[in-house]
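Researcher: I've been going back and forth with a colleague about how DNA-binding NarL/FixJ family response regulator might be arranged in three dimensions. Neither of us has a model we trust, so I'd like an independent prediction. The organism is Mumia flava, in case that matters for your notes. Sequence below.
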Amino acid sequence: MIRIALVDDDPLVRAGLRLILGGADDLEVIAEAADGDEVASAVGTDVDVVLMDIRMPRVDGLEATAALLRRTEPPQVIVLTTFDADDDVLRALRAGASGFLLKDTPPDALVEAVRKVAAGEPMLSPSVTEQLIRRVTAQEQVVPPSRTDLVAALSEREREVAVAVGQGLSNAEIAAELHMSLATVKAHLTRVFGKLDATNRVQVALLVHDAGLV
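Model: Here is an independent structure prediction for DNA-binding NarL/FixJ family response regulator. You can compare it with whatever you and your colleague have in mind.
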């Protein structure tokens, strides 16, 4: 069972999400919060995935997400937005959120996204990843040296895996592309996350694009 928390200041949005997610046998909404300042008390260690609104009256979703991800064993966080090109979404992804969903995402796609994130898989399609990266590279003409240094620490094989992640490939696709087993891909990814100080695939994708590898 995947345990979910909903954080949104609109009770109708929370009710709609609860209804959609509750229809899946393997998903359970166990906590809700109406503002970012309620997250610390509402979201316990038993929560697997948090659906987090960005704009809330007192404490926004970015601050609440950052606080959650500072936990020793943080939940996966998916930010919710009404705009697919919102600058706040980029900030949330860089902070470690696992991805984002538009609030008008179809119910089936919403359920599948939660399942994928809970399983540690990327939930952003290659087209969405490319769109986000284009915005980042357009805004950041100079690559901070620290990012280049991080990528330079990767071995040749780790760099190939990181580049494949930057291209939006799944673990299975990386295994086929680089002629290695799925277990080997996962082992390389673990080392890539560690060396790049990344918590998810989106951060890896942004870093390799910042470094000019994709």
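Researcher: What would you highlight for our discussion?
Model: I'd start with this: The two ends are 37 Å apart (CA to CA). After that, consider the following. The mean pLDDT is 83.
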